[in-house]
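Quick review question:
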């Protein structure tokens, strides 16, 4: 009978060991993921985050930290690895001189740039106020990092009444002007990500003919891909851009109250005088193509001409009613101004 009791004890200990291993693995997985998910942190900070979360998980589970051995490290410049062991005595004593019970687990998680590799928004000009956020601007991009490459004084200006909900505003320079507003995260003297699209987007040949031009009365319009030669839309039109490449040559003006819809669309600006300019109360929904030569690219401009590159201009997001933009916006020859509500979604 005692033998039967010992056998049952061993079975229970093994079951307890199996459950503990699963619990330990879950805690370790969570810890390394937390370390890997830190944005723009050093290896030491990633390790510290993993250690802190793992210790908190042990305390929450009622596990004695003195009986636990854990080690975290960063390897291959991009992987957080963790190993942990918990040691405990057998539940029913040790009649067969069994070794103490040990539960061990290993885990690792890799950290990298945002899923697109595009960095979401890069303000590349090294000029004063390369990024200007005017009162009333609201940017909602919680998964998007903004990279401001300017080292000038000020690199950016943020005025009162601005709301900027972003994963991070990373500014290469140390000087800026902030007159109020709400900003979720700011880093100055930051190691901005390099230009991820330099020379990577094929520039199209601009056809001689125009798909649209001149002045249009209020109404509903569907625009085919092609060249749009400085058209002006009066009233409060609804304009749908059909999927494909739309080349905006000159300034396309849409007057107050307009609605723009562009799904599966890429906008190309062949020079810095070209833009889409709204005069207020704009509602715009735009999403980049999911496939093809311009997959993930919502807006880009000509960069292969040195003369054009030297002719810097502003690009103004002037939505008022809101712009929902999904995809990469690559305008390295522009200073960016936000005057209204803009939601920026990172391409996946």
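Suggested answer, residue by residue:
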């Amino acid at each position: 009978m005692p033998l039967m009791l010992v056998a049952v004890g061993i079975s229970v200990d093994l079951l307890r060991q199996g459950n503990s291993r699963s619990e330990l693995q879950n805690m370790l997985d969570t810890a390394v993921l937390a370390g890997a998910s830190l944005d723009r942190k050093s290896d030491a900070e990633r390790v510290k985050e993993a250690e802190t979360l793992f210790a908190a998980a042990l305390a929450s589970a009622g596990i004695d930290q003195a009986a636990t051995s854990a080690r975290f490290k960063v390897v291959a410049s991009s992987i957080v690895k963790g190993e942990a062991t918990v040691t405990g005595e057998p539940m029913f004593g040790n009649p067969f001189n069994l070794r103490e019970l040990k539960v061990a687990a290993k885990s690792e998680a890799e950290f990298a740039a945002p899923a697109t590799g595009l960095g979401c928004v890069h303000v590349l000009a090294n000029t004063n106020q390369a990024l200007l956020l005017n009162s009333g601007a609201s940017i909602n991009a919680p998964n998007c990092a903004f990279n401001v490459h300017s080292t000038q004084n000020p690199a950016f200006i943020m005025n009162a009444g601005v709301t900027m909900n972003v994963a991070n505003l990373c500014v290469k320079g140390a000087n800026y002007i902030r007159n109020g507003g709400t900003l979720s995260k700011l880093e100055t003297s930051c190691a901005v990500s390099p230009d991820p699209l330099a020379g990577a987007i094929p520039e199209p040949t601009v056809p001689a003919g125009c798909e649209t031009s001149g002045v249009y009365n209020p109404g509903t319009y569907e625009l085919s891909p092609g060249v749009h030669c400085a058209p002006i839309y009066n009233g409060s039109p609804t304009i749908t851009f059909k999927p494909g490449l739309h080349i905006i040559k000159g300034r396309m003006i849409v007057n107050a109250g307009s609605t723009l819809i562009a799904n599966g669309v890429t906008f190309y600006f062949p020079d810095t005088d070209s833009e889409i300019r709204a005069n207020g109360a704009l509602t715009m929904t735009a999403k980049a193509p999911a496939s093809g030569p311009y997959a993930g690219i919502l807006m880009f401009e000509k960069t292969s001409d040195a003369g054009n590159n030297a002719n810097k201009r502003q690009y103004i997001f002037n939505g008022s009613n809101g712009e929902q933009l999904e995809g990469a916006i690559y305008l390295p020859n522009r200073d960016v101004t936000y005057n209204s509500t803009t939601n920026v979604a990172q391409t996946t």
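Why it works: The CA atoms of residues 203 and 302 lie 7 Å apart. Residues 2-110 form one domain.
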